[in-house]
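Entry 14. Structure prediction run on the chain below.
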Amino acid sequence: MADEAQTATKSKVEKIDVSMEDGTTVQFNKKQKLVKTSTISDAGDIALRLDFSNGAVRNFSLPIGSPLYARFAAHGAEQKLGDAIAGESDMGDAVLAVDDLIGRLNNGEWTVTRAAGSFSGTSILIQALVEVSGKSVEDIKAFLADKSQAEKLALRRSDKLRPTIEKLEADKASKSKNQVDTDALLGDLGIGGAPAKKAKATAE
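Output returned:
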């Protein structure tokens, strides 16, 4: 029971109350330096409050008629779409992550809960499903839209798709600029039939 209690305590983020210079109290995480709060009026004016962990408070206003309004909007859009590829090591998966976010934003969905790397392996899976099913890319994307990462992984490992997945990944690896010649590396040790390189004799 004691271990369970300790685990539960650790899982909760510890908050610290800080008295701000304007008399308000703001909660900070232990390592948090800044709390940002923004509000948007019905007219579209933006007000941003910055609370610092040392109690300092700064406010910034951006009225809708400001000449910098469009620049701020562009910067926010760049940041939002750029954050979508966090955790995606494969470029195809990164593109899919951005495509998914663009679709959600076009539908008016701003807050999208997505774990980093949740599109990992999806681009290859789409190619395999297109090849095996004969359906279009858009049909396959629609099919996978509500599938969890666990379901996608299960599809990749299925007997019907695994051979195609392996072939596509092998083709992709063969075209990679970063491909490593493992036969040559192992040949240095005399593994795989290639003779090992002789060590240079050192003069006594």
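Strands lie at 15-19, 25-29, 34-40, 46-52, 57-62.
Filed with the rest of this week's runs.
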